[in-house]
Amino acid sequence: MVRVFTAVFLALLTVSAFAGDKLDVKLTDAVNQAYRTLLDLNNPVSERKKAVAYLKDAYVKENDVTVIDAINDLLLYSYDQSKYKEEDNKSYQSDMIALELVNILQISGQPSSFPALLNIVVKRNHAQATINAAWNAIKAIKWKDK
Amino acid sequence: MKKLFLSILFMSALGIALVSCGGTAVKPGDGGQTNSAAVVKTNAVVQPQNTVKDKFDDTAYKNVIAVLKAALNAEKSNPTALTKLDSGKALALVAKFLKENIKEPKYGFTPEDIETYKGAALKKFKDVVSDPTAGKETKEKANVEMTKLNNL
Fold this sequence. Notes:
heterodimer; A: mainly alpha; 7 helices; globular; B: mainly alpha; 5 helices; 61% helix; extended
C-alpha cells in the first residue's frame, strides 16, 4: 500500500514539475476573439483576414504582447498543415494567413517566436513565400545578448 | 708477443675509459636530468592554438541560423545521405542553442522545444544509418552524432 502511495506521489510530483515549465498565457478578450476566429481553418478567409488585421493593430498600436503568444500558438498548431499542398486552394489560402501572421512576428522580433518560426522552416508545410518570410523573421529576432 | 699482449691490454683499457666517459643520454620528458650533450637547441616557436570552432559546435545565433539554412537548402536540392547527415547535425545544433537559452524566462523555451529538435536530428541520423546508398564512413559518422545527441 505504501509503495502504491509513493508511486502516485512521485507521479504527481513529476506532472506538477512539467506543468510548471509551461507558460501561463492569458489573452485579452479582444485578442482571444481574434485568436478563436483564426483557430478554425474553416472560417471564411475574409473573417480571418480581419482577425489578422486586428492582431496587427493590437500589437503595433496598443503594444498588446499577448498577440505574440496567440500567433505563436496558431502557427505551431492550427497553421502547421501537415498535408499542405499549393494546388489545394483552401490550404493555400490558410497559408497566406500564416504568412501575414509571420509578418507580425517579424515586426515584433520577439525571441519567444523562435520555436514557431523554426517549425515553419524545418517542416516546410508551407508555401515558399511563407518559409522565406519565416527566415526573415528569424533573422529579425532581437536577442537580449546575441 | 709480450708487446703485442700489452698493446691489446692498453687498447682495451682505453676503450673502456672512453665508453665510461660518455653518459647515457636522458630522453627529454622522462623526468631525469638532461645530459648536456643530448640537449638540442631549437628556435622553438609556440604555435598558436587553432581556436576556430567547428561550425556545428558554435552556438552563436548567427552561426546556428546560417548553418541550419545552408543544411536544409542543401538537403532540399540534393537529398543524399551526406546532406541528410548535415541537416541532422544542424538540428542538433539548434537543440543545443535552445538548451543554452532555456534558463532565460523571457525567451519562453520549454524542454519540449529541445526534445522536438533532438528528435528531428535523431530521425535524420537514423535515416542515414538505414540508407542502403550511404557509405560506411557516413554511417559511422551518423552513429557518432547519435551518441553525441544522447549526451546533449
